[in-house]
TrEMBL record:
Stored Pfam families: ArdA, ArdcN, LPD15
Basic and acidic residues composition-biased segments: 373-382, 508-521
Coiled coil, from the record: none
Large polyvalent-protein-associated domain boundaries: 2-98
Biased composition (Basic residues): 522-533
Domain of life the protein comes from: Bacteria
Transmembrane intervals: none
Protein name per its UniProtKB record: Antirestriction protein ArdA
Domain N-terminal intervals: 419-507
GO MF annotation list: single-stranded DNA binding
Length: 540
């Protein structure tokens, strides 16, 4: 059992200094004491207020005293004088706890809280007393009694509805257009939401007419996204597989990661291309973000008050220049203040998960053109078994040249002969335009419309059923058609650059460049003539 004198002896320094407030109360026959500090704005901390209410529940006559503000106490008093002063306050109910809490409580009065509750219910919103009572935000997932059961259930219904609306709104979508029809002035397109599936994208291709026969090229004319700034880094030639890859990564993000991703895009050190953004979504641990910090002063206060960098006494904080300190710190961090908070690169290793070429198999959704039918293996072996015999038969039976049919004129007068010759020529030209050879030429021309007339004719003569023209390196690097041991070779058609007298390869004129179906150049380097020719070398 502690006497009042012994208790005052333990807290005599606090009573004389007049800085802290010391509470005294009795529990049974034993005296107890505990000191408290006020906040910078002369208000109680929420945890101190709760502790004082607990002390009052133990001893309703408890008092809280300060040697500077309370009478019968002073810095020059002896221990006995201090003990007598504390006893006087306690016995006369001076400076009780209720009055002290009321004088230093920053919470709103009960009538104001009830008005706020009524206004919230009238607007159809849940109401919690915790921000008014403790000055702290409540945890929406923990029922702490600060709101009624009805308000708690209403809050969760609203949370579920908000999340459903966010999930219903597409993260990323693009307007996919048929490039061939677009250039013809007959646009055909459809919105595609990413991530998507291969089946859905195939249906879109069918609806907009991309059949890989008459039309095989596409582009994106517009993008939409719930992520600010994302569409600025996408182009009309962005590949659906890459967009699906990015869409799936964004779909798997939690709210905190999404906020950091938005800020990282604005930060911009890894946002130059779609490849960069895909890698950025998988390297968010390389960034630190402070959502509550939006300017230099807030950053300075966060460093000092939350991180204690540097550690300062409470009195020094009154004179500390937070804005200047936050400005210097942000310059050293090379950080940026964004709408989502302050962000900077923490210099962790940034891993290039995506190389810009090979999209992981699980994210590939783009339909592929139909593959040509492979020849019957038994027939191939039979043909390969007797190459000499086949060559001999070919040599013995050369192709007969087309017979020349002379024009026999029946007219006698020169004017009538000229008219007869003109009629015969017009008839021959009409037959040419109705022939299979001209139909084949038009078919080749539709596939290689960027080629010169000469190269198109050469392609039609050598390989009229060709669907793609590219150089050897393009076939190997872009289409993964590599030379495999023991497999049959095929031939491809490709323009070849020529070499000048110094041995340096020169580019062909623009009208003779070979472009594959996405519009990219693909040349086969090596010695060759000035015209399109057959190239051998890749294997299936």
């Amino acid at each position: 059992m502690a006497s009042l004198r012994d208790t005052v002896k333990d807290y005599q320094d606090e009573l004389r200094d007049g800085i802290a407030w010391v509470a005294f109360w009795k529990q049974g026959r034993s005296w107890n004491a505990e000191y408290f500090h006020l906040d910078m704005d002369d208000t109680l901390y929420p945890e101190d207020r709760s502790r004082l209410e607990e002390i009052k529940s133990i001893d309703p006559a408890a008092v809280i005293l300060n040697g500077y503000y309370c009478g019968h106490l002073g810095e020059d008093m002896s221990l006995d004088e201090l003990t007598a002063g504390v006893r006087y306050h306690y016995e006369n109910s001076m400076n009780d706890i209720d009055g002290f809490i009321g004088a230093h409580d920053d919470r709103l009065p009960p009538e104001v809280i009830e008005e706020a509750r009524a206004a919230a219910h009238e607007a159809g919103l849940p109401f919690s007393e915790k921000p008014y009572r403790d000055g702290e935000d409540f945890n929406p997932y923990v029922f702490d009694g600060s709101m009624s059961i009805e308000d708690f259930e209403l809050m969760h219904r609203m949370i579920e509805k908000e999340r459903s609306e966010q999930m219903a709104e597409p993260i990323l979508s693009g307007y996919l257009s048929n490039l061939g029809k677009y250039t013809e002035g007959r646009p055909a397109g459809e919105w595609v939401t990413f991530p998507t599936t291969a089946e859905h994208l195939k249906e879109v291709f069918d609806r907009i007419g991309i059949d890989f026969k008459h039309y095989e090229e596409w582009h994106f004319t517009e993008f939409q996204s719930t992520i600010p700034g994302l569409t600025e880094h996408l182009s009309e030639y962005s590949h659906p597989d890459e967009l699906n890859y990015l869409g799936k990564l964004l779909e798997m993000q939690f709210d905190d990661d999404r906020e950091k991703f938005i800020a990282a895009i604005e930060y911009g050190d890894h946002a130059d291309s779609l490849q960069d953004i895909i890698n950025l979504a998988q390297n968010l641990d390389c960034y630190w973000i402070y959502p509550s910090v939006h300017n230099e002063e807030e950053y300075g206060r966060y460093l000092v008050d939350e991180l204690e960098e540097p550690e300062l006494p409470e009195e020094a904080k009154k004179y500390f220049m937070y804005e200047e300190y936050g400005r210097d710190a942000s310059i050293n961090d090379d950080g940026m203040f964004t709408e989502k908070g302050y962000i900077y690169n923490n210099r962790n290793t940034f891993t290039e998960w995506y190389d810009g070429r090979d999209v992981p198999e699980e994210y590939r959704v783009t339909p592929q053109p139909p593959q040509p039918e492979r020849p019957d293996p038994s027939k191939v072996e039979m043909d390969a078994a007797a190459p000499g015999q086949r060559t001999a038969q070919t040599a013995e039976q050369p192709q007969e040249p087309r017979p020349v049919i002379p024009i026999v004129l029946t007219s006698e007068k020169p004017a009538e002969k000229l008219k007869e010759i003109t009629d015969r020529l017009e008839q021959g030209i009409a037959e040419l335009f109705d022939s299979e050879r001209y139909r084949e030429y038009l078919k080749v021309m539709s596939k290689f419309h960027n080629y010169s007339f000469r190269n198109t004719v050469l392609i039609a003569m050598q390989k009229p059923d060709a669907s793609l023209v590219a150089g050897f390196s393009a076939w190997k690097n872009n289409f993964e058609r590599n030379v495999m041991k023991g497999q049959k070779g095929i031939k491809i058609i490709a323009p070849s650059p020529y070499k000048n007298q110094t041995g340096n390869a020169e580019n062909r004129p623009a009208h003779a460049e070979a472009r594959y179906r996405q519009g990219r150049e693909a040349r086969h380097r090596g010695k060759g003539s000035h015209h399109t020719r057959l190239q051998g070398g890749i294997r299936l």
